[in-house]
């Protein structure tokens, strides 16, 4: 029997208005939410940096204690800046938590296939991101974000993993695949996936990272709509971030040749396995490609997504901040 998504069990009303007007209204609310998230990020980030300075942090004296504290604060900033505005948003608009944290039981084989293919797509996104970074740097611009100093100790590694591969994935998935995507699904699954991926990408405020996050956002969004279980994209996000944490640690102890060999062998192996899984699904289970159709055309949907003050302000702020990170001003 075909599993029914919780979003298909009962029809979503479009506020008794035309779908375009309903979308603009909904997107405006989400835009204001995301603006508050950015404001919270800077507020908590500057607060944590002030705290680090107060306890003796200096860039020239980066020790284990400061490293652990820095990762602890980074993880706390991710959780607070994304979860706090999201929880307030949910409370104000009286959203149903089961529609935010969806936990339907999907078929184990489909869940495993979606997880593996999606994780592979996220890892592959590193390649176009590196190409864009190289293009920007060759043009005399700053293509990559400044690296955080690494202290090679086990406690520091553990705290890095917790902040990067646990706290950040949970906070981002709750906000973007939980709140944002769930509020857009009434306009169609494909639209919700693309729209939430665009907003997720813009939130990163760095052009190479925007490209990386958009590709990952598509994979994470598809994972949610195909399984109706938010823990699948959370697990994918955790796996991908954890992979890069592990590879960065490996880089400290191995030569460039060994590091590159391990990295490419893993990526290529996952790509080949993913291709076989995709071919199998296309031949045997074609219905897995089905997405709930949208109520607006693609152009109209995207146009109305951005034709409101909230999303326009959010987009403008993200673009300006992204340009500033190029080092042009």
Overall strand count = 0
Outline type: globular
Strand content: under 5%
State the domain count.
Answer: 1
Low-confidence stretches: none
Structural class comes to mainly alpha
Characterize the largest beta sheet: strand count, sense, and whether it forms a barrel. none
Q: In sequence order, what are the helices and strands, one letter per element?
A: HHHHHHHHHHHHH
Mean of the pLDDT scores?
Answer: 88
Distance between the termini: 58 Å
Our Rg estimate from Cα atoms comes to 20 Å
* Total of DSSP H or I helical runs spanning 4+ residues: 13
Helix content: over 70%
Please tell me about this protein's structure.
There is one protein chain. The chain has one domain. It is globular. The N and C termini lie far apart (58 Å). The model has no long low-confidence stretch (mean pLDDT 88). The longest helix is centred in the N-terminal third of the chain and has 36 residues, at 19-54. Helix 3 (64-92) runs parallel beside helix 7 (154-184), helix 5 crosses helix 10 (231-253) and helix 9 (207-227) packs across helix 10 (231-253). It is mainly alpha-helical and 329 residues long. The protein has helices at residues 6-9, 19-54, 64-92, 97-100, 108-124, 126-138, 154-184, 189-202, 207-227, 231-253, 256-284, 298-306, 309-324.
